[in-house]
Amino acid sequence: MEIDLSIVVPLFNEEESLPELEAWIRRVAEREKLAYEILFVDDGSIDGSWAVVEALCRNNDKVRGIKFRRNYGKSAALNVGFQAAKGRVVITMDADLQDSPDEIPELYRMIREDGFDLVSGWKKKRHDPISKTLPSKFFNSVVRRSSGIQLHDFNCGLKSYRSQVIKSIEVYGEMHRYIPLLAKWAGFRKIGEKVVEHRARQYGVSKYGWQRLITGFLDLLSITFVGRFGRRPMHLFGTLGTLIFIIGFFSAAYIGINKLIMLSKGLRAILVTSNPYFYIALTCMVLGTILFMTGFLAELIIRSAPDRNHYLIEKRLNE
To answer: Does this model's pTM top 0.85?
Structure first.
Protein backbone atom coordinates (compact mmCIF):
# COMPACT_ATOMS: atom_id res chain seq x y z
CA MET A 1 0.00 0.00 0.00
CA GLU A 2 1.27 3.44 -0.91
CA ILE A 3 2.10 5.59 2.09
CA ASP A 4 0.71 9.12 2.15
CA LEU A 5 2.84 10.46 4.97
CA SER A 6 6.16 9.71 6.62
CA ILE A 7 6.95 11.45 9.89
CA VAL A 8 10.67 11.50 10.71
CA VAL A 9 11.51 12.15 14.37
CA PRO A 10 15.21 12.47 15.29
CA LEU A 11 15.75 11.98 19.01
CA PHE A 12 18.44 12.04 21.65
CA ASN A 13 17.60 11.16 25.27
CA GLU A 14 13.85 11.77 24.99
CA GLU A 15 12.42 8.66 26.66
CA GLU A 16 9.76 10.55 28.64
CA SER A 17 8.11 12.23 25.66
CA LEU A 18 8.10 9.44 23.06
CA PRO A 19 4.93 7.52 24.11
CA GLU A 20 2.89 10.72 24.28
CA LEU A 21 4.27 11.92 20.93
CA GLU A 22 3.53 8.62 19.18
CA ALA A 23 -0.03 8.49 20.53
CA TRP A 24 -0.65 12.10 19.49
CA ILE A 25 0.65 11.55 15.96
CA ARG A 26 -1.41 8.36 15.65
CA ARG A 27 -4.62 10.12 16.69
CA VAL A 28 -4.09 12.92 14.18
CA ALA A 29 -3.16 10.60 11.28
CA GLU A 30 -6.08 8.24 11.90
CA ARG A 31 -8.51 11.14 12.23
CA GLU A 32 -7.34 12.46 8.84
CA LYS A 33 -7.47 8.94 7.36
CA LEU A 34 -3.87 9.07 6.21
CA ALA A 35 -1.74 6.04 5.40
CA TYR A 36 1.26 6.94 7.53
CA GLU A 37 4.49 5.76 9.08
CA ILE A 38 6.55 7.12 11.97
CA LEU A 39 10.34 6.83 11.84
CA PHE A 40 12.10 7.34 15.14
CA VAL A 41 15.84 7.86 14.56
CA ASP A 42 17.73 7.41 17.83
CA ASP A 43 20.90 9.48 17.62
CA GLY A 44 22.90 7.41 20.12
CA SER A 45 20.74 8.04 23.19
CA ILE A 46 22.24 6.97 26.53
CA ASP A 47 18.94 6.80 28.42
CA GLY A 48 16.05 4.38 27.82
CA SER A 49 14.86 5.98 24.58
CA TRP A 50 15.62 2.95 22.38
CA ALA A 51 13.74 0.60 24.70
CA VAL A 52 10.73 2.89 24.40
CA VAL A 53 11.04 2.90 20.59
CA GLU A 54 11.19 -0.91 20.57
CA ALA A 55 8.00 -1.06 22.65
CA LEU A 56 6.25 1.38 20.33
CA CYS A 57 7.27 -0.70 17.29
CA ARG A 58 5.78 -3.82 18.88
CA ASN A 59 2.50 -2.06 19.63
CA ASN A 60 2.11 -0.25 16.32
CA ASP A 61 3.25 -1.72 12.99
CA LYS A 62 3.36 1.76 11.50
CA VAL A 63 6.24 2.73 13.77
CA ARG A 64 9.80 2.06 12.62
CA GLY A 65 13.02 2.65 14.51
CA ILE A 66 16.63 3.31 13.53
CA LYS A 67 19.41 3.44 16.13
CA PHE A 68 22.91 4.89 15.80
CA ARG A 69 25.79 3.34 17.74
CA ARG A 70 26.82 6.79 18.95
CA ASN A 71 25.71 10.40 18.75
CA TYR A 72 26.29 11.79 15.24
CA GLY A 73 24.02 14.84 15.36
CA LYS A 74 20.63 15.88 14.12
CA SER A 75 21.70 16.25 10.49
CA ALA A 76 22.88 12.64 10.30
CA ALA A 77 19.65 11.44 11.92
CA LEU A 78 17.53 13.38 9.44
CA ASN A 79 19.58 12.19 6.49
CA VAL A 80 19.13 8.53 7.43
CA GLY A 81 15.44 9.13 8.12
CA PHE A 82 15.02 10.75 4.71
CA GLN A 83 16.65 7.78 3.01
CA ALA A 84 14.31 5.38 4.80
CA ALA A 85 11.08 7.39 4.36
CA LYS A 86 8.52 5.92 1.94
CA GLY A 87 5.75 8.51 2.06
CA ARG A 88 4.74 10.91 -0.70
CA VAL A 89 4.96 13.68 1.88
CA VAL A 90 7.61 13.74 4.63
CA ILE A 91 7.20 15.76 7.81
CA THR A 92 9.97 16.24 10.36
CA MET A 93 9.44 17.20 13.98
CA ASP A 94 11.44 17.20 17.18
CA ALA A 95 10.83 14.55 19.82
CA ASP A 96 10.55 16.90 22.81
CA LEU A 97 6.83 17.73 22.30
CA GLN A 98 7.62 21.37 21.55
CA ASP A 99 6.28 20.70 18.03
CA SER A 100 2.54 20.03 17.91
CA PRO A 101 1.32 17.08 15.78
CA ASP A 102 -1.91 19.03 15.28
CA GLU A 103 0.01 20.99 12.63
CA ILE A 104 0.38 17.85 10.49
CA PRO A 105 -2.87 18.09 8.44
CA GLU A 106 -2.23 21.63 7.22
CA LEU A 107 1.45 20.96 6.48
CA TYR A 108 0.40 17.88 4.50
CA ARG A 109 -2.29 19.83 2.63
CA MET A 110 0.12 22.63 1.65
CA ILE A 111 2.36 20.07 -0.06
CA ARG A 112 -0.35 18.00 -1.71
CA GLU A 113 -2.89 20.67 -2.65
CA ASP A 114 -1.02 23.96 -2.76
CA GLY A 115 1.91 22.44 -4.61
CA PHE A 116 4.74 23.54 -2.32
CA ASP A 117 8.00 21.63 -2.49
CA LEU A 118 8.86 22.50 1.09
CA VAL A 119 6.96 24.19 3.92
CA SER A 120 8.89 25.44 6.93
CA GLY A 121 7.33 26.09 10.31
CA TRP A 122 7.62 29.51 11.91
CA LYS A 123 7.54 29.59 15.69
CA LYS A 124 6.29 33.14 15.82
CA LYS A 125 5.66 33.00 19.57
CA ARG A 126 8.45 31.10 21.31
CA HIS A 127 8.72 29.73 24.83
CA ASP A 128 12.48 30.12 25.02
CA PRO A 129 14.77 32.44 27.02
CA ILE A 130 16.17 35.53 25.34
CA SER A 131 19.59 33.86 25.27
CA LYS A 132 18.14 31.59 22.56
CA THR A 133 15.63 33.84 20.82
CA LEU A 134 17.97 36.80 20.25
CA PRO A 135 20.79 34.80 18.57
CA SER A 136 18.13 32.93 16.59
CA LYS A 137 16.70 36.16 15.18
CA PHE A 138 20.15 37.35 14.19
CA PHE A 139 20.99 34.00 12.60
CA ASN A 140 17.74 33.91 10.62
CA SER A 141 18.26 37.47 9.42
CA VAL A 142 21.75 36.66 8.11
CA VAL A 143 20.62 33.47 6.35
CA ARG A 144 17.59 35.24 4.88
CA ARG A 145 19.76 37.98 3.37
CA SER A 146 22.48 35.66 2.09
CA SER A 147 20.18 32.99 0.65
CA GLY A 148 17.34 35.10 -0.72
CA ILE A 149 14.83 32.71 0.86
CA GLN A 150 12.26 34.71 2.80
CA LEU A 151 11.74 32.47 5.82
CA HIS A 152 11.56 33.68 9.41
CA ASP A 153 12.69 30.47 11.13
CA PHE A 154 15.18 28.33 9.21
CA ASN A 155 15.98 26.20 12.25
CA CYS A 156 12.41 25.14 13.04
CA GLY A 157 12.32 21.36 13.27
CA LEU A 158 8.73 21.19 12.04
CA LYS A 159 8.83 21.07 8.23
CA SER A 160 7.06 19.22 5.44
CA TYR A 161 8.55 18.12 2.13
CA ARG A 162 7.56 16.63 -1.17
CA SER A 163 9.27 13.25 -1.29
CA GLN A 164 11.38 14.24 -4.31
CA VAL A 165 12.99 16.99 -2.24
CA ILE A 166 14.36 14.80 0.54
CA LYS A 167 15.54 12.18 -1.94
CA SER A 168 17.52 14.83 -3.87
CA ILE A 169 19.53 16.37 -1.04
CA GLU A 170 22.14 15.17 1.41
CA VAL A 171 22.13 16.55 4.95
CA TYR A 172 25.45 16.37 6.81
CA GLY A 173 27.47 18.23 9.43
CA GLU A 174 25.04 20.75 10.91
CA MET A 175 23.26 21.37 7.62
CA HIS A 176 19.79 20.62 8.98
CA ARG A 177 19.51 24.38 9.60
CA TYR A 178 19.94 25.00 5.88
CA ILE A 179 17.64 22.39 4.35
CA PRO A 180 15.59 25.11 2.57
CA LEU A 181 18.82 26.37 1.01
CA LEU A 182 19.88 22.83 0.04
CA ALA A 183 16.47 22.36 -1.58
CA LYS A 184 16.82 25.64 -3.47
CA TRP A 185 20.25 24.65 -4.81
CA ALA A 186 18.71 21.31 -5.90
CA GLY A 187 16.14 23.19 -8.01
CA PHE A 188 13.14 23.18 -5.69
CA ARG A 189 12.09 26.81 -5.44
CA LYS A 190 8.49 26.68 -4.25
CA ILE A 191 9.25 27.10 -0.57
CA GLY A 192 6.51 28.21 1.81
CA GLU A 193 6.10 29.00 5.46
CA LYS A 194 3.44 28.35 8.08
CA VAL A 195 3.06 29.81 11.56
CA VAL A 196 3.13 26.88 13.99
CA GLU A 197 2.60 26.48 17.70
CA HIS A 198 5.69 26.35 19.87
CA ARG A 199 4.93 24.46 23.04
CA ALA A 200 6.86 24.77 26.28
CA ARG A 201 9.28 21.93 26.97
CA GLN A 202 7.77 19.34 29.31
CA TYR A 203 10.62 16.86 29.69
CA GLY A 204 14.41 16.91 29.56
CA VAL A 205 16.68 19.79 28.68
CA SER A 206 17.70 21.58 25.49
CA LYS A 207 20.48 19.91 23.50
CA TYR A 208 21.76 23.13 21.96
CA GLY A 209 24.34 25.54 23.31
CA TRP A 210 26.28 28.60 22.21
CA GLN A 211 28.55 26.43 20.05
CA ARG A 212 25.84 26.19 17.40
CA LEU A 213 26.30 29.89 16.57
CA ILE A 214 29.88 29.25 15.49
CA THR A 215 29.17 25.98 13.68
CA GLY A 216 26.08 27.51 12.08
CA PHE A 217 28.10 30.38 10.62
CA LEU A 218 30.81 28.05 9.30
CA ASP A 219 28.21 25.75 7.76
CA LEU A 220 26.57 28.73 6.07
CA LEU A 221 29.89 29.61 4.42
CA SER A 222 30.38 25.99 3.43
CA ILE A 223 26.94 25.49 1.91
CA THR A 224 27.10 28.82 0.07
CA PHE A 225 30.42 27.84 -1.50
CA VAL A 226 29.31 24.30 -2.39
CA GLY A 227 26.01 25.50 -3.81
CA ARG A 228 27.53 28.19 -6.03
CA PHE A 229 30.94 26.78 -6.90
CA GLY A 230 30.80 23.08 -6.02
CA ARG A 231 30.92 22.04 -9.69
CA ARG A 232 33.02 24.96 -10.95
CA PRO A 233 35.63 25.78 -8.27
CA MET A 234 37.94 27.35 -10.86
CA HIS A 235 35.43 30.18 -11.27
CA LEU A 236 36.08 31.22 -7.68
CA PHE A 237 39.71 30.31 -7.03
CA GLY A 238 40.87 31.07 -10.56
CA THR A 239 39.20 34.49 -10.60
CA LEU A 240 40.52 35.46 -7.16
CA GLY A 241 43.98 34.08 -7.94
CA THR A 242 44.21 35.90 -11.25
CA LEU A 243 43.10 39.23 -9.78
CA ILE A 244 45.49 39.02 -6.82
CA PHE A 245 48.38 37.93 -9.08
CA ILE A 246 47.75 40.84 -11.46
CA ILE A 247 47.71 43.31 -8.56
CA GLY A 248 51.01 41.91 -7.27
CA PHE A 249 52.61 41.75 -10.72
CA PHE A 250 51.83 45.34 -11.68
CA SER A 251 52.79 46.58 -8.22
CA ALA A 252 56.18 44.89 -8.54
CA ALA A 253 56.53 46.20 -12.09
CA TYR A 254 55.75 49.73 -10.90
CA ILE A 255 58.41 49.50 -8.19
CA GLY A 256 61.02 48.25 -10.70
CA ILE A 257 60.14 50.77 -13.41
CA ASN A 258 60.08 53.60 -10.88
CA LYS A 259 63.65 52.71 -9.80
CA LEU A 260 64.88 52.56 -13.41
CA ILE A 261 63.39 55.99 -14.09
CA MET A 262 65.07 57.44 -10.99
CA LEU A 263 68.44 55.92 -11.98
CA SER A 264 68.15 57.26 -15.53
CA LYS A 265 67.73 60.74 -14.07
CA GLY A 266 70.74 60.29 -11.84
CA LEU A 267 68.67 60.20 -8.69
CA ARG A 268 69.46 57.98 -5.77
CA ALA A 269 67.04 55.05 -5.42
CA ILE A 270 66.75 52.49 -2.67
CA LEU A 271 67.19 48.82 -3.44
CA VAL A 272 64.04 47.08 -4.62
CA THR A 273 64.51 44.51 -1.87
CA SER A 274 64.64 47.31 0.69
CA ASN A 275 61.19 48.53 -0.33
CA PRO A 276 58.48 46.98 1.91
CA TYR A 277 55.93 47.30 -0.88
CA PHE A 278 57.98 44.90 -2.97
CA TYR A 279 57.35 42.11 -0.45
CA ILE A 280 53.65 42.92 -0.39
CA ALA A 281 53.58 42.67 -4.18
CA LEU A 282 55.58 39.42 -4.07
CA THR A 283 53.18 37.98 -1.50
CA CYS A 284 50.22 38.85 -3.74
CA MET A 285 51.85 37.08 -6.69
CA VAL A 286 52.57 33.96 -4.63
CA LEU A 287 49.08 33.96 -3.10
CA GLY A 288 47.46 34.47 -6.49
CA THR A 289 49.42 31.54 -7.91
CA ILE A 290 48.40 29.31 -4.99
CA LEU A 291 44.72 30.23 -5.38
CA PHE A 292 44.85 29.59 -9.12
CA MET A 293 46.49 26.19 -8.63
CA THR A 294 43.94 25.34 -5.95
CA GLY A 295 41.14 25.99 -8.44
CA PHE A 296 42.98 23.99 -11.11
CA LEU A 297 43.45 20.98 -8.82
CA ALA A 298 39.84 21.22 -7.62
CA GLU A 299 38.69 21.13 -11.26
CA LEU A 300 40.74 17.98 -11.85
CA ILE A 301 39.13 16.34 -8.82
CA ILE A 302 35.64 17.36 -9.96
CA ARG A 303 36.28 16.02 -13.47
CA SER A 304 37.38 12.70 -12.00
CA ALA A 305 34.41 12.36 -9.61
CA PRO A 306 32.04 9.48 -10.49
CA ASP A 307 28.99 11.72 -10.06
CA ARG A 308 30.37 14.66 -12.08
CA ASN A 309 27.48 14.39 -14.57
CA HIS A 310 24.77 13.70 -12.01
CA TYR A 311 21.82 15.97 -12.68
CA LEU A 312 18.43 16.10 -11.00
CA ILE A 313 15.71 15.23 -13.51
CA GLU A 314 12.10 16.08 -12.71
CA LYS A 315 10.32 14.05 -15.40
CA ARG A 316 10.93 11.90 -18.47
CA LEU A 317 8.51 11.35 -21.35
CA ASN A 318 8.07 8.47 -23.82
CA GLU A 319 10.62 6.13 -22.30
So the answer is: no
